Amino acid sequence: MELTHFDQTGAAIMVDVTEKKETVRTATASGVIHTGGDAFEAIRRGTAAKGDVLGVARIAGIMGVKKTSDLIPLCHPLPIGKVSIDFDLHPDSCSVVCRCTVKTTAQTGVEMEALTGVSTALLTVYDMCKAIDKSMEITDICLMRKSGGKSGEFIRPGTQTEEDSHA
């Protein structure tokens, strides 16, 4: 497989997408933050000293999506059409799962934007709860699915699709 972010001499380049067709592209990424019991309860109850942890993390994730090309050197700036950040609380494991879905119509995909959104949201949860629990751990950040573009659809093996959840 040829690496697209390097020229013939090995120098880093931004991929030329000018000849690519604009298509609707979506990507969903997810990740988890594992907390202690006190931090989890503060998140769940909305009683953290810094305020509404998940509300602030949602806004931070959206901002992270919009700033991806400023953070990842070879990413193209993209017109973001939609961002959603969702959280699932798991009391049994004192963990919070974050999912970020990004949608655009562009010449290149939004996988990096979705991954940046999840990362930023989870880092914000850590920042807002670190006074309660410095041992929190962020894990399992990955691309769950993407669609659009020449490579078509990708669904991470083992991922439940929307169609599966309605069956």
Placed side by side, the strands forming the largest sheet appear as 2-3-1-4-5
Mean pLDDT: 92
User: How much of the sequence is in beta strands?
Assistant: 25-35%
CA radius of gyration: 18 Å
Poorly predicted runs are none
Fourth-tier CATH superfamily name: Molybdopterin cofactor biosynthesis C (MoaC) domain
- The CATH architecture assignment turns out to be 2-Layer Sandwich
Major sheet attributes: 5 strands, antiparallel
CATH class: Alpha Beta
Share in helix: 25-40%
| Domains, number | 1
Written description of the protein model:
The chain is of the alpha+beta class and 167 residues long. It has a single domain (32-148), classed as Alpha-Beta Plaits. Helices cover 30% and strands 29% of the residues. The chain contains 5 helices and 5 strands, in the order E-H-H-H-E-E-H-E-E-H. Strands 2-3-1-4-5 form a 5-stranded antiparallel beta sheet, covered by helices on one side. Strand 2 and strand 3 (95-106) form a beta hairpin. Helix 2 packs antiparallel against helix 4 (111-129).
